[in-house]
Every structure is written in C-alpha cells, then in structure tokens.
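[retry 2/3] JmjC domain-containing protein: previous attempt timed out, resubmitting with same input.
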Amino acid sequence: MSLPAIPPAPRPVEAAFRPLDEGWLQWVAENRLRNCTPESMLATMVQAGMDPAECQQVLEAMETDPVFLAARKFQQLQVKLESVMANQQKLLELDPAYGQVEKRGQMSVDEFLQRHVIGSRPVVLTDVARDWPALQRWSPQYLRERFGHLDVVVQAERSADPNFEVNKLDHQRNILLSDFVDRVLAGGATNDYYLTANNEMLSQPGFAPLLDDIGTLPAFCDPSQLAQRASFWFGPAGTVTPLHHDTLMLCHTQIVGRKRWRFISPLQTPLLYNHFDVYSPVDLDRPDLSRHPRFAQATVLDVVVEPGETVFLPLGWWHQVSALDVSLSFSFSNIAVPNQYSFDNPRITNW
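[retry 2/3] JmjC domain-containing protein: success.
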C-alpha cells in the first residue's frame, strides 16, 4: 500500500501591515501642528507596523490638506496670544520681589484690592485670624469629641489613582468623623485619604458650631455670605492637591499644621499642558520634562503657610498644595468684589 502524498509546505505569508486608520490620521495632523518633523513621524509609524510607502504618502498629503491648512491659520492666532501672555509675564518678573510670596499684616483694603485682587498677586496675610476662637479650639481631638458622631464625606483610596483629583467623585466615601480622626492620627503621612472642600460639611446643621469659631473677617469680605462660601479641610501630613486653578478668588486660613503652597501665574498657562478642565498633568514634585518640556520655562513661587496665616489666591493662579503636618484649614470666597467668572475649559482626554 502506497503512503499518502505529503502536502507541499505552505508558502510563508507576508506580515500584514497595520492599517493607517482615522486615529493615525489625526495623530499625523496633531504632531505636525506640534512641529514634529515628517522624518521622525515616519520612523514612529513604521516602527508601529505600518506600510512605509503609505505613511510617506499620507505625510506628504497632509501638507496640502485644506483642513490642516485651516488649522495652521488658527494655530497662528493661538501662538500670537501665547506670545502676548509670555511678554506680559516678562514684565511682571522685572519686579525683583516677584519670586517671593509676601507675608503681610495690617494691610489696608485699598492696597489689598489694588495690589492683590486687581493686581492679581498671591499674598499670605498674617493677621486675618488673630481673634478666631478656632485657633485655640480646633484640633483632631476637638473634632472627635464635638462632632465625632456625625457622618462626613471624604476622599479615599487616592494613592492607587494617578488622576485622583479629576476622579474625585469616584473616591467619595461616607465615614463617621470620629473614625476618620482616628485614621488620620494613626496612619502617618499619606495622600490616600483627605477630607476636602468637596465634602460641603459646613452646609450641615450639625457642623454649624464650627462657623461660630470664625472670628472677625477681613474688611474686604461680606460676612453675610460666609456660611454659603466657606469650606473645611482636614487630613494627614502628605496630602497633595495637584496642580490646578480655581474659577474664583478665595482665602485659605491654616488653623492646625503647615501647608506648602506653590503658585504659577495664569499668564504661563501655555506651559502647563492644560488639556482637561482646570487641571495640569505636571507634578511639581516630580516634573517630567521629557513629556512636558515647556514646563521648564515656568516660574514657580513657593511659600510655607503657618497656623494662623491666610493665603489669598488670586483669580486663575495655578497652585499645588502639600500638607507638611496633620492639617486643619478653613477657606472662604465671600470676597466683596465680583467673584464669579467663566472659563472655557478644554475637555481633551486623549493627549
């Protein structure tokens, strides 16, 4: 009996090229608008498994694409605005004291409004809380004894999420204040949990006595609006509020512990890669200049705020805040000048 014929070996199949889809076409346009060279882009695309000939054709066609040329026109307008901002920042930095955040007491209302509100310059006020009962009463133990039976909303499990502030609603947890106090006191330095302004606990009747511990407000504030425009902060050493800007002006008084505040002028927004809402991906503790090279041009102001001192945050200033100790803080935005502003924030999530 004859053996069955051995089938011929299959011919090797050439590896298929990765398709150059709409996502890659957008990538090409975006990176040309960033002024990446066609040569470097071709190398990246070929390394990703695409047909070199097709990539070369797409790169050449992009230079005459009418949609891309329209984008180039708008890019010129954006670059002009960025240059205006950069030049205004240069003028501000001619001030020899620009690099320092001033600490001041006994400032007149007129000087405060002209220099810091209208002049848009951060300052630490040393005498705002001089008669506040909170400075003598507030402590973690006081919170436990007086309010420990009440529920609060905290942020938790932050350490595992690099975007914990953007995703803050996902980290909300209900907990008895007494249990949270115990966790803070026993847990050491950490950024894993924090009771922040988003808890809105001061709107609860049970926490109203905390507002009674706030004494005389600065003359530039409207006391009748305090209850609606105040926030409470409590957490361990090590908590970090990442780099972002607020959409109004506020004061932030340190009651217990110290916080480190770092500021960057809103005129330097183009250096901070603000692609989503009011957040920057730059971490001032560990800036990644390979991903964010323009940040190297930014000027960072740095100050440690002690108990009893009040930071004034001007409109639009970028800031990153780190707790150096177990910290209790009180912030308020009832400033008696227009303090509602509109920002057209980007919503780009894929850069």
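[retry 2/3] JmjC domain-containing protein: The longest strand covers residues 250-256.
[retry 2/3] clearing retry counter.
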